[in-house]
């Protein structure tokens, strides 16, 4: 089976596991409503630019900047939502046949969780760029840099173990030192696939929003409130497509990183108990990788 098919199978299987979970549905509704609120918030400076500056060169630059910031805020909001999705999915894949695991009861996010999730999402591109620069110049990696290769585990560490960002980094450094990660995430390209789909939806939304907004109210020929209405319609249409793309990317990566985290915990248990059979991957990963047949259940 090709890696792309594995990614599609994993995403589909993940969705089937949580699609009827009321907690998951609540989180997704909150994500959608939060995204719409962000769009309305960003409409305020957009309207100010249209009203005071218009479609001058400076105005167009500011409008583009506002759109980029709106998109970036939606992506950050998606990363914050991951902190809620991960415990729900972990409860699903970590339950066994003999004991039903209690689902997470706390859906609200604390201020420190929001701060740490936003900070990590905001700083991760810069950290990755710095890591690439170090590799280009063949700079030997320091121990504190080793965790960057498995930075995706920061999300489940913060969400499931309720660690702060600093604590999660320290825990990940320990995981790397103890060589508990036995899987390369690129073998199932969930991140690459959903990232491409996310940007396809975003670009499609930009095009549809621009066309519909211009057809609704051409700012060069209309006056009064009509240009603002056209801008709002275009922003909302483009934003809805962006929200769908971010949702797909957020959900898929949250599930994938959670499954890898659970495998790491199984390996850790196997090391502590001296029982290699405890190091098996979670059922959903094992089935996608072909290590566990569909008829076999985790014990």
Q: Characterize the biggest β-sheet.
A: none
Distance between the termini: 26 Å
Quote the average pLDDT.
83
User: Quick one: how many beta strands?
Assistant: 0
Gyration radius over CA: 22 Å
Question: What is the helix content?
Answer: over 70%
Number of domains: 1
Strand content: under 5%
Shape, principal axes of CA atoms: elongated
Q: What's the helix-strand series?
A: HHHHHHHHH
Structural class: mainly alpha
Number of helices: 9
- Assembly status: single chain
Spans with pLDDT under 50 lasting ≥5 residues?
A: 96-101, 295-299
Could you please describe the fold and organization of this structure?
This protein has 299 residues and is mostly helical. It has one domain (3-95, 104-289). It is 71% helix and 0% strand. It contains nine helices and no strands. It has helices at 3-18, 22-52, 57-93, 111-136, 154-160, 165-177, 190-216, 226-273, 283-289. Helix 1 (3-18) packs antiparallel against helix 9 (283-289) and helix 3 packs across helix 5. The longest helix has 48 residues, at 226-273. The protein is elongated. Residues 96-101 and 295-299 have low confidence and may be disordered.
Short key terms for the protein model shown above:
single chain; 299 residues; mainly alpha; 9 helices; 0% strand
List the helices and strands and how they pair.
Layout: H1 3-18, H2 22-52, H3 57-93, H4 111-136, H5 154-160, H6 165-177, H7 190-216, H8 226-273, H9 283-289
Helix pairs in contact: 1-9, 2-3, 2-8, 3-4, 3-5, 3-8, 5-6, 7-8
């Amino acid at each position: 089976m090709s890696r792309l098919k594995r990614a599609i199978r994993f995403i589909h299987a993940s969705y089937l596991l949580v699609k009827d979970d009321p907690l998951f549905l609540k989180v997704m509704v909150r994500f959608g409503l939060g995204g719409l609120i962000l769009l309305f918030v960003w409409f305020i400076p957009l309207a100010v630019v249209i009203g005071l500056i218009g479609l001058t060169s400076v105005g167009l630059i500011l409008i583009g900047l506002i759109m980029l910031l709106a998109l970036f805020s939606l992506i950050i909001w998606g990363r914050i939502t991951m902190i809620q999705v991960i415990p729900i999915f972990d409860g699903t894949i970590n339950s066994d046949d003999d004991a039903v695991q209690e689902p997470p009861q706390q859906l609200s996010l604390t201020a420190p969780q929001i701060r740490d999730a936003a900070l990590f999402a905001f700083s991760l591109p810069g950290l990755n760029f710095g890591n690439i620069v170090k590799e280009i110049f063949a700079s030997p990696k320091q121990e504190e840099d080793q965790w960057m290769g498995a930075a995706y585990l920061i999300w489940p560490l913060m969400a499931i173990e309720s660690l702060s960002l600093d604590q999660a980094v320290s825990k990940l450094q320990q995981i790397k030192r103890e060589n508990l990660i036995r899987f390369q995430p690129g073998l199932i390209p969930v991140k690459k696939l959903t990232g491409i789909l996310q940007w396809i939806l975003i670009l499609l939304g930009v095009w549809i929003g621009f066309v519909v907004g211009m057809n609704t109210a051409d700012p060069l020929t209309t006056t009064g409130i009509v240009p603002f209405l056209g801008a709002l319609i275009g922003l909302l249409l483009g934003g809805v497509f962006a929200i769908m793309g971010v949702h797909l990317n957020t959900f898929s990566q949250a599930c994938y990183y959670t499954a890898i985290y659970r495998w790491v915990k199984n390996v850790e248990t196997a090391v502590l108990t001296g029982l290699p059979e405890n190091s098996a991957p979670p059922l959903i990963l094992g089935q996608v990788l072909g290590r566990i047949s569909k008829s076999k259940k985790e014990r």
